[in-house]
Amino acid sequence: MPKSNLNTKSPISSLHSIAAKLECDFAKLDIYTIGDLLWYFPWRYDDLSEIKSIQDLGEDEVATVKVIINNVKAYRSPRRKIIVTQINTSDETGKLEAVWFGQKFISQVLKEGDEIYLSGKAQIKTSKTKTMASPDYEKVKDDLNKQIHSARLVPIYHLSGKITQKQLRFLMSRALKIADYHDDPLPVEILNKEKFIWLHEALQEIHFPTEEKKLKKATQRLKFQELFYLQAKYQLAAKDYKQQSSFAVDINNKLLEQNIKSLPFELTNDQRQSLGEILADMTSPHPMNRLVEGDVGSGKTIIALLAGINAMSGDLQTAMMAPTEILAQQHFANTQKIFPKNQLEQLALFTKDLQILGNNKILTKKNIVEAIKNNKIKFIIGTHSLIQDKIDFKKLGLVIIDEQHRFGVKQRQAIKDKSQDKEVPHLLSMTATPIPRTLSLTLYGDLDISLLKQKPAGRQPIKTHLIPDSKRQDGYKFILDKIKQKQQVFVVCPLIDKSDKLGVKSVTQEYNKLNKEIFPDLDIRMLHGKLKVDEKKKIMDDFQNNKFPILVSTSVIEVGVDIPNATVMWIESAERFGLSQLHQFRGRIGRNELESFCLLFTTDQSKLNTTRLKALTETNDGFKLSELDLKLRGAGEIFGTQQTGLMRLKIAKLSDTALIKKAQKWAKEVINNKKYLSQQQLQKLLKSLATKMHLE
Ligand code: ADP
Ligand code: MG
Hints:
The protein has 696 residues and is of the alpha/beta class. The chain has 24 helices and 23 strands.
């Protein structure tokens, strides 16, 4: 086939004939085209670069030798009935025998007189003969750089199905020959200033590194490219967003002061300041894009509700989206309390199975959708249903996304696009997972951030203890004592196994144990994802009203749930949860002036686990914990099990702080300074980066 016609969009089968079945295996790795293949990186390398002489091979030593084949034999092994290929080889210093089992084709590939590299583990049979069993082999080429399986840093890829390392390397080396990356997509100013190597060389080096140093350079370059792409995309989106037009919302000071006065507490200074920032943003005819970041229990909800009530007084609608039904219901209940009493029919809860107005009137989905469309309902609180169902808002002024890291980029976008009006809604996101600044930049691009650093006054720090199993009984006594003082207890259990997706099994087990054996006299209830909405609602309402003392639950109570009278968080198998997730659980307690306790149980005595859990007992600072989590377990864990908000990075890591900053700086520079690229060129660049990196 004439290779000149090939480019990165050609199918991989154009590189070499590939069986249909193998193509399926490649598809599983998301590799369809030559370009996809080039952006499929090794996960590690075997260093086979040192070439030894046979004489110097030690027993059990893994090494590479360069030898001549003296003869090739293939025969059927008498006992095992498989083909054995045996070759005798030598170099100037000695003789070496190599054998393979069951690989018929080897005797057709290797011929007497061939000069080859063998890489494998040497065994010393007698003082004269050394052997290697199933070594890697490759014929010696005229240039060391042409070797792809031996005598170099050899790439090792994650495989799928019947694909072998050798095949993948072979296809890769062909793909690199036709890669049309000779024009580098990045502006030459960046390449020069940062001393990045060119893309073509970077790809060559990442797959077949000539030396460690070059490999490092290639990695840096490719990571930068990925991060630059993301940064530029986010920054452009943020800029675009800010240039769109929105309803400018006046600040209704009188109404707000009235509301604030009627609260059972004083707002903290941080709360006042954040609210001020939000309201000021909203007076602009361009959309707000603000993230309220504050540790668990710092009081984010009330700020969002006040912003919504203010928007309502300007005849605008507010949509508030929470990640779980339980949380949506709780926000709804809280909003009912502070909402103007004569307007309760303008407030609604909208979840998958329940649609109800602020005056507790239950509506059909059809009716509620109609009322939202006509702007009769102004404040809508819900879950993902708000985007999934066919809701159109008449005048959507404000979108609030609670626990926003729980939502994917697309979901966050979808809720903003719900307005029939051409005006773009103001966007207020909230997160109780304080994330390191670099991470938030990578994940969310350029957001304005309001920080709630203070906790409301009068809160006592939560005491966290790691309890050894031998003291379990004391733990039970301890909570019984708290319950006698009319306080309440959460017991959280992880999933037992993968099949138990909703945790029904683990919760039921724990529930039975507590209910039958430990506390037969107490009213204990359980909560998991499989219960019906109204059952869940009743349990949460009853727990809120202190009708029973112990709630055994899955991680569904992880985010947001607010039961001020609960003072003990008892966590089973704590090793199964991420640090930040544990911190979230802990945030469910310590929500009033009572002393609160978080008790951790674990059977995992590993050092990593002990370090993590100890950190939790030592600090109540969510920021510190998420940084530590990032370091110990990687970014995914910060967000617990649901990572919808995280994009998949091909090569960069969220811990590549310095590169992220560099990428951010350059993205800003390139976007704002036309000397690098015109608008059009920039768009073209992003598009080509996206397709080349296979990011979209
Ligand atoms: P989070 O920031 O985790 O979302 P919430 O908004 O759920 O926290 O607030 C936690 C609890 O603190 C709620 O019961 C809320 O009513 C209460 N709260 C909020 N602000 C204050 C304050 N300034 N003083 C006392 N309690 C407050
Ligand atoms: Mg919250």
